[in-house]
Amino acid sequence: MAVPVTAPERPARRVSARHFVRLKLRVLGNNFRGQGWRIALFIVGVVIGLWAATGGFFALAAPGLADEPRYALMVAAFGGGLLVLGWLLLPLVFFGVDETLDPARFALLPLSRRTLVTGLYAAALVSVPVLATLIAVAGLVVTAGALGGWAAALVAAVGAVAGLLLCVASARAVTSAFATMLRSRRVRDLAAVLLASLAALLGPLQIVVVAAVSRADWDRLTGVARVVGWTPFGAPWTAGIDVAEGRAWAAVLKLLITVLAIGALLYWWSRSLESAMVGAANAGPARNQRGTVGTAVAQLFPRAVGWARRDRFGALVARECRYWWRDARRRANLITIAVVGIFVPVMVNLGGARFAAGAGAEAGFSVTGESSPVLVSLSMIFVGVLATVTLANQFGFDGNAYAANVVAGVPGRLELRARMTAFSIYVVPLLGVVAIVVATVLGHPGWLGAMAGALLAAYGTGLAINGFVSVLGGYALPETSNPFAMNTGAGVAKSLFTLVSMIASAVAAVPILVAAALLGEVWLWLALPVGLAYGLGAALLGAYLAGDALDRRQPELLAVVTPRR
Amino acid sequence: MTHEHPALSLHGLAKRFDTKIAVAGVDLDVPTGSFYGLLGPNGAGKTTTLSMAVGLLRPDAGQARVLGYDVWGDPVHAKSLLGVMPDGVRLFDRLSGAELLAYHGLLRGMDPAVVDQRAAELLDVLALTDAGRTLVVDYSAGMKKKIGLACALLHGPRLLVLDEPFEAVDPVSAALIRDILHRYVVGGGTVVFSSHVMEVVERLCSHVAILAEGRIKRVGTLDEVRGARSLEEVFVEVVGGRTATGQELSWLSR
Prior knowledge:
The complex is a heterodimer of chains A (about 575) and B (about 250).
Chain A: H1 17-32, H2 36-65, H3 69-95, E1 97-98, H4 113-125, H5 128-183, H6 188-215, H7 218-229, H8 235-244, H9 248-281, H10 296-300, H11 312-326, H12 328-357, H13 373-389, H14 394-398, H15 403-407, H16 412-442, H17 448-472, E2 485-486, H18 490-508, H19 510-519, H20 521-561
Parallel strand pairs in A: 1-2
Helix pairs in contact in A: 1-4, 2-3, 2-5, 3-5, 3-7, 3-8, 4-9, 5-6, 5-8, 5-9, 6-12, 8-9, 11-12, 11-16, 12-13, 12-16, 13-17, 13-18, 13-19, 16-17, 16-20, 17-18, 17-20, 19-20
Chain B: E1 8-17, E2 20-30, E3 35-39, H1 46-54, E4 61-66, E5 69-70, H2 75-80, E6 82-85, H3 97-107, H4 112-125, H5 141-153, E7 159-163, H6 171-186, E8 190-195, H7 198-204, E9 207-212, E10 215-221, H8 222-226, H9 231-239
Parallel strand pairs in B: 3-8, 3-9, 6-7, 7-8
Antiparallel strand pairs in B: 1-2, 1-4, 4-5, 9-10
Helix pairs in contact in B: 3-4, 3-5
């Protein structure tokens, strides 16, 4: 039965993108095997995706359905541009990318970079968000078809697909590039700052845009839309409109721009992919830092925790503090808090007031009078709650390293109190900065007390609720060096837990809002002490109750946060 | 009073994952002062058994006692007497070696001065002082095993439970680990460790248990288990290996 050993081997069969797609589907399928709740989560994800997709579809199809050609270009350019921007930034800031097929797993296979990139790209296209986006952009085809007939619809369809490809390519390229930077010890701090400032730019940008929208007339906006249409952000989406308006040459050029952009992004991705593949095997050079300073205990405690007693609590706080800075995944979350903390309140209080004022309001920046302590408190509650959502899977960050605490028999209450303390060492100063910046930007320094009170109250209730969520709903994070990677299906789980914990925390902070609404002027003085007491009390109560739950399910928690290998 | 009890006593430990039975009722008594080797092929249930014995994994049935204290009923007492080095479990590896030791020491409620002194000594003996402030994540496999052992030893436990302490360790580090474990047992401690390397077990252990398919197949002192044969022969016979006929895999030779 033995084959002659000298027989010439058949040439290896070519590996195509099809294999990657099938591999991804198989991995997805195996993930569902015997896991009812995963299937349920997946279905929930699909339903949410379809719901968003339908909304997007009608928004983009509206100019065609209503037969309003003058809005068509604007809707396509701005709507499509936002879509690309979303695909570019959201994975970085909020959701992460699905790394069902981790590039590092392919490092040993004899695959050319070209095969690998096209394969992984094709596999990345198999996902719910892609399907949802596809449905949404089909609205553009309807618009183009209604305004320009079959030819325009056809070009719009090609443009929509090309635009979708652009979205996915940009998400992959950008996360991969940032992951590479965050991995490298040399530039990772630079990358963090870059990411933060990039996202922080969204705030001012949004103010400018909102100001422009309410000030500018339609002609000027159409002009802007025309310019956006010639950038990769708008080019794929507006090609169909151009055909409808009789500029076929423009459509051809725009499709060309799109294809070139996709090519460039894929090339960029393939460059950083290589380092991702090698990176997992060897996460950078082991820098041998000699010259020990002080004793072991002195080394463990960072300066910010110098006040802590050298006991169990102190050790837990010190270790958590070190981890919030040294773990790329945790640090990425801290950056998100900083960015969103500034961005959202400014947006709600300036932008919201401006939108509420409507197009009829006079132009200019004198909108400060339209915000109110209640609105400000509301946005502060949102920020406080959002900051603590990071802790919803705090044990997942540790993975099975948490076993050390289980073996040492750390009491649950102590554990949670220490984790809250360490997180607060970073976040409370951050929230203070947020309150000061927002109060200054709004031109109401007198509201600082009310804002800080609402922030602290919401932050405290958030700590309590997320203490529970993290103990009861922990899940494993993938063991890759990409801080943006999510496990298959974990995206939906993450979103759901986030949503539940946010709603619960916000509800728990409602009394503060009621007080702000009823007490008026007095509240501006009372808010800070009351908010502080409320938040502190909530956090301690949360640690007390959730710590009890943790004591009862320590080994189970360890099991669910242990990554499957 | 703890001397009346075995260092580790497992009774009817069982665990099932979904449909697969990982451990099907393990009874084991580890005498105080013994050097106990738990042998078994891959997938025999060694890690599952040890995890249940030290409180990392809740058993479906059965009891585990450390020097008489129930690991699941009275975890505080049991865990304070226990030092554990799990396998395939990450350490808090974004700390340096010294920081990690300080963390473990304080977590065990030790006095900071004692932690400092013991940590310095352990790092020195295990030849990890040179690593300085390098993070444990950047350590080599052998260094990770050594710092894991140091963490388990730091608080001076009465019973040491080690899962695969010699896996992926170079001969120099292995010799060092063996030496330290030997001294620990001579000093009155008890060691239980799992392995599938026969030479190490034959050289070190006073007692051996062979685990296969979730059950204890052979148990006793080293001499009782191996009799007149080598431990490897007994092991292969118990586990039921297959011998090659020479026909298959012929394409491997050119």
